[in-house]
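User: quick one, sequence for these tokens?
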């Protein structure tokens, strides 16, 4: 679903053959696997994630694709077990907004990237620009009363405000910081019913809210989400308009 974001990160960071790349919070293997193909056998990729199951899944997928230039490490984004000035590029796709200490993670990323090396982040833009998220959340909110969200708490839209992540990078000493909006189509071979299943799987918050409801209420939510998803369903695929911010910068010469 997020392949367009991966392509945008590769372009923004000018990743090419021979580069050494660190992927922070790489989840189940992307964008690391695509980047490993881009840097070729003369390059290398290390994929990290805090969750052991994610690391195992990404390692298995890399083996299936017979990729020899990629390694995997379980670690927190705020505590990277690598020497300073190790990587040409560090990327983080849809991860930094979920970190308990994003400032600490940015400092760690800056520590391990080489001088003049590039760092590139992708974060979700405004909730209203991403129906993949707000359709289900709005329906659930009619059944579960929720307090107002803390804009500074970890969450999908922590850095949705334009300039917020860029300001954090500037404060950390990153230079040549830039931000651009990427509009794309979130395209997946899902039915409207599967859309709810995937959406719930991706959100701890959504699952926790639904867990407090009766079976009848959950059934109504599933039906309403499925009906709403039909507006984006055609020819066996779900296609949602989507929007992320691509934020990049460089490490200054010491």
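Assistant:
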């Amino acid at each position: 679903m997020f392949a367009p974001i991966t392509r945008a990160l590769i372009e923004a960071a000018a990743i090419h053959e021979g580069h050494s790349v660190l992927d922070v919070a790489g989840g189940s293997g992307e964008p690391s696997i695509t980047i490993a193909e881009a840097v070729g056998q003369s390059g290398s990729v290390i994929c990290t994630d805090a969750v052991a199951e994610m690391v195992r899944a990404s390692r298995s997928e890399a083996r299936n694709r017979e990729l020899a230039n990629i390694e995997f490490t379980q670690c927190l984004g705020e505590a990277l077990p690598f020497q300073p000035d190790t990587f040409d590029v560090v990327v983080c796709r849809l991860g930094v907004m979920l970190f308990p200490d994003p400032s600490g993670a940015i400092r760690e990323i800056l520590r391990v990237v080489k001088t003049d090396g590039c760092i590139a982040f992708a974060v979700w833009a405004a909730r209203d620009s991403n129906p993949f998220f707000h359709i289900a959340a709005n329906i659930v909110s009619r059944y579960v009363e929720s307090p107002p969200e803390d804009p500074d708490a970890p969450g999908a839209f922590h850095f949705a405000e334009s300039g917020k992540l860029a300001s954090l990078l500037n404060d950390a000493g990153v230079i040549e910081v830039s931000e651009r909006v990427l509009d794309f189509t979130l395209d997946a071979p899902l039915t409207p019913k599967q859309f709810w299943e995937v959406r719930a799987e991706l959100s701890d918050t959504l699952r926790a809210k639904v867990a407090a409801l009766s079976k009848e209420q959950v059934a109504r939510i599933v039906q309403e989400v499925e009906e709403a998803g039909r507006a984006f369903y055609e020819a066996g695929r779900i296609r949602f308009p989507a929007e992320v911010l691509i934020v990049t910068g460089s490490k200054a010469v010491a």
